[in-house]
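Q: What residues go here?
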């Protein structure tokens, strides 16, 4: 997955603050740095389409004890496709983004600042494989050299979350689905399926839509999605034919 730099052109990662072990600038002791730092006060932007999953309370309005606990200052976390998360620390002010809001690459998150546990204006940027942790080096994602290869679906004829997620991902790759592949089908997923199947896009997966999908999969078009239909879907997804 490729992420754009969330900082302006001309800015670079501080060579003394890469991902990994370093001397903590506050304590001077060795400590694992879970992201990368970019110095200065500048507009911080969304590196890829996603959904906001966390916006910290305004750091300036907190008590001294609360500020000590909110060491990242003004923090924002965004979820992207394939359950990849990016986190942003030390914003000058609380972001105007809201939890649950869908964002596009290039949208403003906030201005980098020095709130929280910080020695000066900068952005601390993290890439995670879960909302609360499992940190990875952001550089390969920024360079486009990191890839996420999905595991083949188990062909069990069950339309579970993994199958929905794989279907959403396949539809997104072809430009039909605009949301985040999360395995939770809603109106956006239904409309994407209908667009792919060539039927009216009303967001309701009824008998007409189910029959159209079955025709695309080459199984009996009776409008009933049973094990035969779902198994055919899973095989098509594994083969890249959706």
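A:
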């Amino acid at each position: 997955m490729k992420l754009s730099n969330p900082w302006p052109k001309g800015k670079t990662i501080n060579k003394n603050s890469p991902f990994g072990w370093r001397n903590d600038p506050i304590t001077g002791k060795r400590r694992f740095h879970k992201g990368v730092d970019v110095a200065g006060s500048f507009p911080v932007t969304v590196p890829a389409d996603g959904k906001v999953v966390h916006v910290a309370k305004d750091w300036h309005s907190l008590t001294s004890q609360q500020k000590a606990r909110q060491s990242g200052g003004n923090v924002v976390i965004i979820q992207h496709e394939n359950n990849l998360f990016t986190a942003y620390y030390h914003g000058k002010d609380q972001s105007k983004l809201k939890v649950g809001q869908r964002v596009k690459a290039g949208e403003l998150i906030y201005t980098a600042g020095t709130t929280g546990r910080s020695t000066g204006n900068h952005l601390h940027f993290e890439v995670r494989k879960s909302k609360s942790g499992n940190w990875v080096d952001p550089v390969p994602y920024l360079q486009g050299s990191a890839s996420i290869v999905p595991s083949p679906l188990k062909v069990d004829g069950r339309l579970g979350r993994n199958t929905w997620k794989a279907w959403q991902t396949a539809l997104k790759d072809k430009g039909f689905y605009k949301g985040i592949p999360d395995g939770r089908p809603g109106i956006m997923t239904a409309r994407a399926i209908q667009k792919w199947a060539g039927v009216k896009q009303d967001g309701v997966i009824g008998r007409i839509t189910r029959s159209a999908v079955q025709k695309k999969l080459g199984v009996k078009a009776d409008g009933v999605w049973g094990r035969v239909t779902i198994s055919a879907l899973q095989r098509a997804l594994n083969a890249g034919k959706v």
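A: Context that may help when evaluating the design: The two ends are 20 Å apart (CA to CA). The CA atoms of residues 41 and 112 lie 5 Å apart.
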